[in-house]
């Protein structure tokens, strides 16, 4: 991880200057946006961004990991919230998603390479580097050799997002500059602290699309469940025993056990990072799975609803006197820290 972050880039200088001046010429607070990992749930990030744009909430810098890095990179590159929704709507069904899968046979490193998904992202990002972005962005991945979070802040953005989005055991690790990287969600699923320290921000809005521990306790979250479609219900009943043995993601099998263990660690890390945020927006999905991209409408609307509910707390951040020292700022903002959830039917 880079310990020092310099901002010599022209695009970032523009963002820095715009964050210094409010509508009356006064100094506006420096607010960051941290976007969590979460698979298809991460489409809710686009809904949150739409509301922030519509309400004119100034964002100084962005940090994202996994799906949060994917959405955050597109926004940092200049796509609007409406553009992000258009991209989400492209994955209209499971067949479209499968067309973006480059399967590994045999699956020794993972189930897919992820190269097709990276090229799909590059339709918008092209060969942009972090220096070319309209908004400052950092992308968090997990360094498999050092077993630590790694912050990408230079080089090709699409390569950093690919590394950050490489879901362990599902996607093969990504090799960059002689090191191997996997999903940033394994080490920093909600990068609030890193973002605040890197850009010396006054406040951070955290968007957490991961499930809450209570969801698993009540079995209201279906992130680890596969739903049989009507056409396959008879087949499923007849061959359930066989399918249970060959499907590595089935309940109790190796990838299911691995994902559950990883989720346990992630929820612990997220709780600590939520406590460090000034406003937490938490869209909640009862009937979601990590690969459920075709139900983009549900996620987008959940993000919009949660962000709209959070607007009073977000606007309170804009009223904070940034001339106060950081200790006073933290004390003043703490009462506005909120957790907002939306239960989708």
From TrEMBL:
User: For the region Disordered, what residue ranges are annotated?
Assistant: 1-30
Q: Which UniProt keywords apply?
A: Hydrolase, Lipid degradation, Lipid metabolism
Q: Does Aminoacyl-tRNA synthetase show up as a keyword for this record?
A: no
User: Which domain of life does the protein's organism represent?
Assistant: Bacteria
Domain named PNPLA: which ranges?
Answer: 33-196
InterPro entries in the record: Acyl_Trfase/lysoPLipase, NTE, PNPLA_dom
Residue ranges annotated as motif GXSXG: 64-68
Motif segment (DGA/G):
183-185
The keyword Hydrolase appears for this protein: yes
Residues at the catalytic site? 66, 183
Q: What is this protein called?
A: Patatin-like phospholipase family protein
């Amino acid at each position: 991880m880079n310990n020092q972050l310099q901002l010599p880039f022209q695009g970032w200088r523009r963002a820095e200057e715009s964050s210094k001046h409010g509508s009356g010429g006064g100094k506006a607070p420096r607010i960051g946006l941290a976007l969590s990992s979460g698979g298809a749930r991460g489409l809710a990030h686009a809904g949150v961004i739409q509301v922030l744009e519509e309400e004119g909430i100034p964002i100084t810098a962005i940090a994202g990991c996994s799906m949060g890095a994917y959405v955050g990179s597109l926004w940092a590159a200049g796509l609007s919230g409406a553009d992000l929704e258009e991209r989400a709507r492209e994955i209209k069904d499971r067949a479209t998603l499968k067309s973006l899968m480059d399967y590994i046979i045999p699956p020794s490193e993972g189930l897919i390479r992820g190269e097709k998904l990276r090229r799909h992202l590059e339709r918008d990002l092209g060969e942009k580097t972090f220096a070319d972005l309209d908004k400052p962005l950092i992308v968090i991945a997990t360094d498999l050799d050092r077993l630590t979070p790694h912050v990408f802040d230079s080089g090709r953005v699409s390569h950093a997002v690919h590394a950050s989005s490489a879901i362990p055991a599902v996607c093969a690790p990504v090799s960059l500059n002689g090191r191997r990287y996997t999903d940033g969600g394994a080490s920093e699923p909600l990068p609030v602290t890193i973002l605040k320290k890197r850009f010396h921000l006054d406040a951070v809005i955290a968007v957490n699309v991961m499930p809450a521990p209570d969801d698993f306790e009540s079995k209201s979250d279906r992130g680890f469940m596969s739903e049989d479609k009507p056409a396959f219900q008879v087949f499923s009943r007849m061959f359930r025993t066989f399918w249970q043995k060959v499907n590595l993601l089935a309940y109790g099998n190796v990838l299911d056990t691995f994902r559950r263990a990883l989720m346990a660690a992630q929820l612990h890390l997220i709780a600590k990072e939520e406590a460090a945020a000034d406003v937490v927006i938490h869209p909640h999905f009862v009937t979601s799975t990590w690969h459920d991209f075709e139900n983009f409408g549900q996620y987008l609307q959940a993000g919009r609803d949660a962000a709209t509910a959070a607007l009073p707390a977000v606007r309170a951040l804009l009223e904070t006197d940034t001339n106060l020292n950081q200790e006073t700022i933290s004390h003043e903002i703490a009462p506005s820290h909120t957790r907002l959830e939306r239960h989708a039917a």
